Structures
1.
Amino acid sequence: MELLTKILLGLFFVTSVAMVVLILLQRGKGSDLGAVFGGGSQSVFGSRGSANFLTRITALLATVFFGIALSLAYIYTGARTPTSVTDIVTSEAVVEEIPQTSGSGGDSELPQVPE
C-alpha cells in the first residue's frame, strides 16, 4: 500500500505540473504565452487546431488529476489512525471514571489556598 501511495503521489505531482504548463500555453483573449512558442497561424496545429488540442489534453489531465486526488484521499482516510484526543476517546469503548476528592481538603496532597 505504501508503494502505491508513493506512485500516486509521483503521478499527482507530474500531472499538476503538466496542467500548469498546458494552461499557460493556451491562447487567451489577450496576449498569451502560446504566441511566444510560435502559436501564430504557422504553428504545427494550425491557427485554431492548437486551442482544441490543448483544451482536450488539459481536460484529460484535469480528469486524471481529480481521479488521483480522490484515490489518495480514499487511501489516507482508510488507513487513518486516531490523532486527536476525541478520536482516541470515541474509538475506545471503556472510559475510566475520574476519582472524586472530598470537599474538606484535610487529607489532600494539594496545598490549601489562603482565603
Note: Residues 41 and 56 are 20 Å apart (CA to CA).
2.
Amino acid sequence: MKFKKQVAIEATVGIFAFAIIAVLFALTTYLSEEMLFRKYTYLDVVFESVSGLRVGDEVNARGVVIGKVKGLWLEPDGVHVQARLDVPVELREGYRIEVATGSVLGGRYLSVDLGDPAAPRLSLDAPLRGSASAELMDTATKTVQDIQAALNDGVLADLKAAMAQIRKITESLGEGNGTLSRLLNDDQLYGDVQQIAANVRTISDAIAKGEGTIGKLVMDDEVYGQLQQVAANLGDISGRLAKGEGTMGRLLSEDDQVYRDLAATVAQVRTLAESVGRGEGTLGKLLADEGVYREFQALLREGRATVDDMRETSPVTTFTSIFFGAF
C-alpha cells in the first residue's frame, strides 16, 4: 500500500514537471516567434556597417514586414546579418538590401528591394552583398547645416549691404546733402516748417470754431440743412427724369416719340443744308450762284452811291427850302 502511494506521488510530480516543461517550451517558442515543423527562408547579408541594427529588428519589403533579424556576427569580409523570412520572396538582379532608419527618434530595420521583376532570379543560398545606406539623421543634419550656412551667408551679405547704405546716408546727412539733411541742419527751413505747422493749427482752430466757408460747412447746421435740401432736390429731379417728366425726362424715357421727333428735325435740317449746299432754292442760289452774288454786290454798290449822292446834295436842298420858304 505504501509502495502504491509513493508511485502515485512520483507520477504526479513527473506529470507536473512535464507540464511545466511543455509550458516553458511553448512560451519560449512563442516569444522567439519560431514555429515547429515550419520551413523558413534565411538570408545571409554582408555589410560594411550595420549602423546600430539589432537582433529582432524587422525585415521590410515594399512597406510590408516579411521577417526578423535573427543574428549578427563579424567576419573578415564584414558584418553578417542573418534574416529569417516569414514570407517567401524572390530576389532578382538589381536587388538592394540596406539598413534603413525607422524615424528621426531612432530605430533600424532591414529594407529589401526585390529588384526588377523581369530580371533573372538569384539564389538565396550564397551570402548577399548589402548596400551602404544614407543615415537619416546625418542627411538631415547636413541639410540643416547647409541651409544655415546659406542663410548665414545671405544674412551677412544683406547686413553688410545695409550697413554700407546706412553709413552712406549718415555721411550724406553730415555733409548737408539732400532734403532730409536740410531739414535737420537748415534753421530757416525749420522755421518755415514751424510756420506751416502753426498755420495748419490756425486753420484747424478756425474750422473747429465754424469760421470761414469750410468751417461753416463743417460746423453750421443751417448749411448742413441746405446741403440736405440740395441733395433732396437733386433726388427729386433724378426721380422726375426717371419717370420721364419734363423735356429732359421725355428725352431719357422709354417712350422714344420725342427722340423720333428730334431725329426727324435733325434729318430735315440735314436735308435743307444739303439742298443749300447744292445751290437749290433762293438761299442756295444766293450762296452758290456767282452771278447772283455779283448782282448783289452791284446792288450794294449802287445803294452806297445813292446814299453818298443824297449826303452831298443835302445842304443844297436845305438852303433851297429855306430860301423859297421865306417868300
Note: The longest strand covers residues 64-75.
3.
Amino acid sequence: MRVRIRRGKTAFKLTVLGLILLLAESASAATAIQWQEADKGLHAAEFQSTFNGADYAVTLVKIDPAYYSFKLLCATEHGKEPLSVKQWALQDHLVAAVNASMYQADGLTSIDFMKNFSHVNNPRVSRDNTILAFNPTAQNLPQVQLIDRECQDFSDLRTKYRSFVQGIRMISCKGQNVWSKQDAKWSSLAMGMDAKGNILFLFCRTPGSVHDFTQILLSLPLSLKSAMYLEGGPQASLYLSTPKISLERYCTLGGLECDALKFALPVPNVIGIVKKPR
C-alpha cells in the first residue's frame, strides 16, 4: 500500500485518516487476549471479537507440546460407535479434545488422509494442503507439526511421523487468508500452529463464514504460522477439563440460535491431548 503526501498538512491529514479507516475495516477483529492458565503449558481464552460490524464468540486453547502428547482416536480403530468429543475425552482420559476432521457419509471415514500408527482410517491423500503430523519416529524431530504441503516436503515428512490428519488450509505459508469469500455461515472449528510451535484449538461459536473467521484469527496477536479447518456446524466441538478450567463448546448451523442445540453431537474421530509424565 502506498500513501502519498501532497498539498500540505490538510492533504496529509486526510490521507492518514483514510489509511486509519482502511486498517480499521480490514483488522477490526484485533482483540487483546487474556489467557488463563489451565495447567502448566496449557492456556485458554474466551472473548467477543468484532469483525465487519458483527460480534463473534471465540474460544482458544493453546497447547505447549513440551508438556502434552497428542492422540488420534478413531471409532474404526477402537471398534466404537461415534461419541461426543466430551465422551471421547472422558473415556480416554484426555485433557482436551476436538473432532479431528470432517467425515464421509458412512459416519466413520475422514474425507482426507487419516492414519494412526498402523491403523489407516483413510489412505487417500487429497489435494488439501495442510496435514497435522505427530508421534515422530525420532527424538530430534518436532513432537507435532502442522505441515503446509506448498512449502514443505510431505513425501519426506510422511516417513518421519506415525499419526496424520489432513485438512483444508486456511492460512498460506506467507500468512495470507486462502479461504474464498462465501455467503454461507456456520460455527467453525480449526487448529493452528504459532511461531513458537504451540498448537492451538480455535473455535468460533457464532455462525459466520470461514473466510471471516480466518481474518479474525489473522488479526489476533497469535503469531499464527498456519491453520487448518477441522469442522463446521453442529458437529464442531471443543472440550477442555482441568482442575482450574472446564469448558465444552459446540454450536449449530447459521440461521439458528446456538442454544437450539442442547447437546454435542457424536463424531467418529478426535484429536486429544494427555499430560506427559514429568
Note: Residues 1-29 have pLDDT under 50 and may be disordered.
4.
Amino acid sequence: MAPDPFRFTAAVPLRWVDVDVAGVVNHAVYWSLIEQARFDYFAQLKLVEGDIPPFLLGEATIRYERPARRGDALAVAVRTARLGGKSFEMQYEVRREAAGEVRLGASGASERLAVAKALLVWVDAKLASCEIPAAARRAIAAFEGIGERG
C-alpha cells in the first residue's frame, strides 16, 4: 500500500443540523468541514493570526464518492500540493474514520467519502492579492516536502 500523501488530518465533528431527514450529511456541509480542517492546518503551521486566514478562496471543486451519515466519525485530510507566486493549490479528502482512529496530525484507517481541491490566493490587509510571504512559503514547503515554487 502506498503511503498516505496527506501529512495532516483534522477531526471534524458533525452537528445535528448537518444531517438531513434521511440521516445523510448535506452536500454543502462538506465545504464547512473542509474549511475548518484548512483553518486547523494553517493554525498548526502558525500561519493564522487570530481568526483571519491570510488568503481567499479563488476556485474549488469536489467529487462526492459516498454519503456521510449521522453518527459517523469524520476527518478531513489536508495538503498543499503546489505553491505559486500569489496562489497555491490545496487538496482534501473527507474520510469516515474507524472508531478510535480520528486524531489531529495524521490519518488512520479510513474510508474516503469525497475528494476536493481548491485554489487559494494570498491577500494583504486590503484583500488585494500579493506574493506569498517567504516565511509562509518556507513553512508550507518544509511541512509538505514540496518545492517553494511550482
Note: The chain is about 20% helix and 30% strand.
